[in-house]
Design goal:
By secondary structure, this protein is mainly alpha-helical. The protein has 15 helices and 2 strands. Helices cover 55% and strands 3% of the residues. A hairpin with a 2-residue loop joins β1 and β2. About 10% of the residues have low confidence.
Amino acid sequence: MNGGLPGFHNAPASRAVVVASALFSVPFGFRGRFLDLGLSYQNVYERLSIWRLITSLFAFSSTPELIFGAALLYYFRVFERQIGSNKYAVFIVFSTMVSVLLQILALGYLKDPSINPLTSGPYGLIFASYVPFFFDIPVSMRFRIFRLSLSDKSFVYLAGLQLLCSSGRRSVVPGVSGIIAGLLYRLNTFGIRRLKFPEFVTSLFSRVSWPFSSNPYQGLPTTENDANISSPQPVHTATQDPPESSIAALVSMGFDRSSAVQALVLTNNDVNLASNILLEAQALQQ
């Protein structure tokens, strides 16, 4: 999976969620089968165990779930770079709250012992992110494996499917709740996409730096100022012009042709990486 520029540059909210998931999962999540960190009918409606709301939001219940979940959260940081940390923080809060509410309602309505407790972890945010991934990220490459037609997006879907089915029905309910939350956000329910947090709130995310490097551009060719990518500078290269299909894919996303060409040259015709460089340049200019 390629999520664009390496590291969490211009994605402090995503970094905070990944760090929080790791910190909660290490002491709690790996023993989750025993501790039952997820939401259940008894804990929500009978015991009112409010602390489980926190653990259910961040702590994965097993190592495989943590690996797949953290990888997907890292990949989806591209959306924070696209819309900015402030709006992305709203997306995090909205998708998480709606997902938890839907899970609580599902527990009360179904009263099915087989789904108690629900799988813990930031399933709401992860699966809500699949909504913009489906609608806004174009397919840049198609290929076949054993006569099966796949694309560069297929591996992201497969990772999500693995996470969705990791605990059977116990993980399906949080996953579906997240997808519904993502759809509600996309439909701008209650005008949620116009909301913003005060700047001091989103600035707190930038203080969460452990355990990631502070140099996100190491080994990546970039211009002196990424924001200048919208005003292309002369590029001296011996490579051939980018393929017209790659240029068209970026232009179809709303970028001008000259910026698309420069981004493709900088990334050796990697459409995914080029699109994320352009998205980040837009975020820097906001």
